Amino acid sequence: MALPTRKKSETVNGAEPPAVPLHIQVRETIRRQVKEGALIDKTGRLMTEAELGKHFGVSRITIRNAIAPLVSEGMFARERGRGTFLRSNQPENWVGRLMGFSETIRDAGYHAGAKVLQQGMTNRHDAEVREQLQERAVWQLKRLRLADDTPIAIEHAFYPPDIGLELEKRDLTSIIMYRVFEEELGHPIKEAKQTIGASLADSASAKLLGVKAGSPLLAIERLTLGTGGRPLELLRSVYLPDYFRLSISLTRHS
Is the pLDDT of residue 135 over 80? Predict the structure, then answer.
């Protein structure tokens, strides 16, 4: 769909210009269409400014003004000599909505995948896992998480035995965990308590993620609780910081 082109001083059908500037209209249309899988190729490369100008029927200056904020906020990254590319960090704007990795990545227009590194029952877990899940033995799942086949995170999750043994029956490379909790296992989710920090990649993590040992990583721990307050999952994850951006809405009351 093309948007009407208009100079700053122009009016539409003799009326006053619309309240929303044209470059903002274009920006939000780009944001929406990219999330729907349009305007980018299979590598995530955005159409050129000239192509976008032709697509929307606007000037290159309007396109440039529309894209610049999307780059600043982290939706796109510019690579010299190659173009502008979609980054998978865009949907990680945390304003209270609980989403799993697969939901987050798919929302960004990527294919979410996983490689299982470790799974099964264990009692060789630390005291914090035991305390938070309230179980002496737990079922664990450690996975390398992928966005379009690119490794971007490592997740190590712990579950009560009854939940873990149910999860074991499913495809753990494509499972949408929270949907399975609620729609298949009958465990409605009430809330999650999440801690965000920083860590450095050890040699094993660095090899899996394709970075140097000692590289900075984003570290997250999340305890997910059911409606009755029962712990359902304790998740410990590390992410490549280039792929995830945290934007948290804050309010101040007088």
Answer: yes
Q: Cβ distance 222 to 193 under 8 Å?
A: yes
- Tell the residue number behind the tokens 């390398």, with chain if given: 144
Q: DSSP secondary structure string, 86-111?
A: E-TTTT---SS----HHHHHHHTTPP
Provide mean pLDDT across the span 20-30: 88
C-alpha–C-alpha distance, residues 178 and 189, integer Å: 8
Mean pLDDT of the chain, nearest integer: 82
Tell me which of 86, 114, 138 is where a domain ends.
86
- Over 60: is that where the pLDDT of 2 sits? no
Q: How many domains does one find in the chain? A: 2
| 3 within some domain | no
* CA atoms of 170 and 163, how far apart (whole Å): 12
Q: Distance between CA 41 and CA 83 in Å, rounded?
A: 12
Per-residue CA distances from 51 to 32, 60, 62, 97, 122 (Å): 17, 9, 13, 35, 55
Distance from C-alpha of 225 to C-alpha of 133, rounded to nearest angstrom: 10
- pLDDT of res. 250: 65
Residue 86 one-letter amino acid: L
